[in-house]
Amino acid sequence: MIKQTDLITKTVEFVKNSLQNAESGHDWWHIERVWKNTQLLLKTETADHLIAELAALLHDIADAKFHNGDEEIGPATARNFLQSLAVSENIVYHVEQIIRHMSFKSSFEPAPFSSIEMKIVQDADRLDAIGAIGIARAFTYGGYKNRQLYDPTIAPNPNQTKEEYKNSTAPTLNHFYEKLLLLRDKMNTSSGKTIAIQRHEFMEGFLKQFHAEWVGEL
Ligand code: ADP
Ligand code: NI
After folding, report:
1. Which ligand is closest in space to the CA of residue 29?
2. I need a surface site. Which of 97, 138, 142, 148 has the fewest CB within 10 A?
3. Contact yes or no for 36/43 (Cβ under 8 A)
4. CB-ligand 1 contact for 174 (6 Å cutoff)
5. CB of 131 closer than 6 A to ligand 1?
6. Which ligand 1 atom sits nearest the alpha carbon of residue 170?
7. Does the beta carbon of 38 lie inside 6 Å of ligand 1?
8. What is the rounded CA–CA span in Å between residue 183 and residue 196?
9. How many angstroms separate the Cα of 152 from the Cα of each of 156, 179, 204, 205?
10. What InterPro entries does UniProt report for this protein, alphabetically (predicted)?
């Protein structure tokens, strides 16, 4: 099998090339941040570094949202790439399973697959959805979907079904109450949780300021 450092280098190259035209919420920089978050969590969590890093790098390789909802393209693309480098089947399989099952969408239901490596990468991805970067990504996504910033007459609904959530046209601010503020309590690892607590507080501060400015206070 190819040397571990060469495998990571080749994977970085492959992901950068594949994501050249990706929108800014899922571009190479998102992947790099999730990879760095993963490396940070690996300092305190005991896990297989190679599997966690490969999964972090490949986790958004073909997002279903941009492939007519096909949830199998991502895992299949990762498998084909790793197989092309003759990576051993147990690693290929594990990485493929992480990519298949780690999205927030799947976490509406009980997980059919779990491992410490998956928990770490899922935490690393969630950390990039909260805090200052999380705020920036939410408004970027909202702009891309032509959503309103906020509408005080449209209440957030944190108990939506998967289908309702997908078809929602709610303002971007609702996303904070429906998803982003719920992530802190969904963290898998204690090191992830510690970082999430700080980023959560930052979002709460932002929302407080947003609502104050909305009504012309301050
Ligand atoms: P990822 O692929 O990183 O797990 P998603 O594809 O679910 O995450 O979302 C990508 C980014 O877009 C995240 O930062 C998320 O908060 C944001 N986003 C997703 N849905 C919405 C929405 N309805 N309104 C605002 N932002 C959203
Ligand atoms: Ni992601």
Report:
1. 2
2. 148
3. no
4. no
5. no
6. 23
7. no
8. 8
9. 10, 18, 17, 18
10. HD/PDEase_dom, HD_domain
> Is the domain of 11 the same as that of 87?
yes
87: domain CATH number is 1.10.472.50
Give the residue, out of 15, 105, 108, 141, with the most ligand 1 atoms within 8 A of its beta carbon, to mutate for a pocket test: 141
By residue range, what is the domain housing residue 217?
Answer: 129-218
User: For each of the chain's 218 residues, which pLDDT tens digit applies?
Assistant: 789 999 999 999 999 999 988 877 789 999 999 999 999 999 999 999 999 999 999 999 986 556 666 778 899 999 999 999 999 999 999 999 999 998 655 555 666 889 999 999 999 999 999 999 999 999 999 999 999 999 999 999 988 887 887 788 999 999 999 999 999 999 999 999 999 999 999 999 999 999 999 999 86
Whether residues 10 and 107 fall in one domain: yes
Question: Closest-lying ligand to the alpha carbon of 166?
Answer: 1
Other CB atoms within 10 A of residue 116 CB: 15
ipTM comes to 0.95
Q: Which residues keep their CB under 5 angstroms from ion ligand 2?
A: 60, 125
CA of 218 to the centre of ligand 2 (A): 36
> Which residue, 132, 143, 144, 128, is CA-closest to 183?
128
User: Which tokens is 50 given?
Assistant: 């190679």
Which ligand is closest to the CA of 56, given by its number? 2
45 and 76 belong to one structural domain: yes
